[in-house]
Design goal:
254 residues, alpha+beta, 2,3-Dihydroxybiphenyl 1,2-Dioxygenase, domain 1, 8 strands
């Protein structure tokens, strides 16, 4: 997909939101995520032509980062050039993703981890559709991305003062923002690359509920911050699923 520099066509003012999206445009593995999600997306043979997977992913991520509802995200795409540019959309006369398809991308992110095929949220209410009990897979929701840094204090100051992010929890080697975190300890996979985490309510049940053929990248481990295990994505990279501990080392700012 041809991607323009986020939001630079309409204004040169470097707002916090603009700076944040520019950084996310660089650090998120946009060239790899569509290949992970594409096998679980609808085939697009019915209805209007679908948007590119990367466009839908970018819209979904913005919805999570800025805490927007589906309708509010759709409205922002109509009103804000910055959002349209980050998503890779064209001019103002080009249609934008509606809230329901954008929401479906979240389901596909979950299915890419669990190994399930795409199923709309309402499918279990349709006559003849599989029941909830017959569903094989896990219930996961996107948690956060971890970036490993050498100087935690400097990185924390940058994200707070330059990008205006609010610290949710902090520890001597870890700082959690909303859906983004920085850490200076040992990476889970041994390499200092960005780690993607999905949250589950019960990690042990999630391991048992994995679809057949899903490869474990990390066996289930009990760590101070919770129970975690990793599955290997089609590109070979690990994706982590985490059951957060109620009493974990990081604390909310006082």
């Amino acid at each position: 997909m041809k991607q323009t520099s986020p939001g630079l066509r309409q204004s040169s003012k470097r707002t916090r939101r603009r700076v944040f999206l520019e950084r996310m445009d660089r650090v998120v593995q946009w060239s790899e995520l569509p290949a992970l999600i594409s096998p679980f997306m609808p085939d697009g043979r019915r209805g209007r032509p679908p948007f590119a997977v990367e466009v839908m992913l970018r819209v979904h991520f913005m919805q999570q980062w800025f805490k927007l509802s589906g309708p509010a995200t759709e409205e922002a795409l109509h009103d804000m050039a910055l959002f349209r540019d980050f998503a890779g959309l064209g001019g103002w006369d080009e249609r934008v993703p509606e809230s329901a398809p954008a929401c479906a991308v979240g389901c596909c992110c979950h299915n890419a981890v669990s190994g399930a095929t795409y199923s709309p949220p309402f499918s279990r209410h349709v006559a003849g559709a599989p029941t909830e009990e017959a569903h094989m897979g896990i219930e996961a929701k996107f948690g956060f991305i971890v970036e490993y840094v050498q100087d935690l204090a400097a990185a924390k100051q940058f994200y707070q003062e330059v990008l205006g992010l609010e610290v949710q929890r902090a520890h001597e080697s870890y700082v959690q923002f909303e859906t983004f975190a920085i850490a200076s300890d040992e990476p889970m996979g041994g390499e200092a690359e960005h780690e993607l985490y999905w949250l589950v309510d019960n990690a042990e049940a999630a391991v048992e509920g994995l679809a057949e053929g899903v490869e474990l990248a990390l066996p289930l481990r009990q760590l101070p911050f919770g129970k975690v295990f990793g599955v290997r994505a089609p590109d070979g990279r690990p994706r982590y699923l985490l059951e957060l501990a109620k009493d974990r080392p990081s604390r909310k700012p006082s």
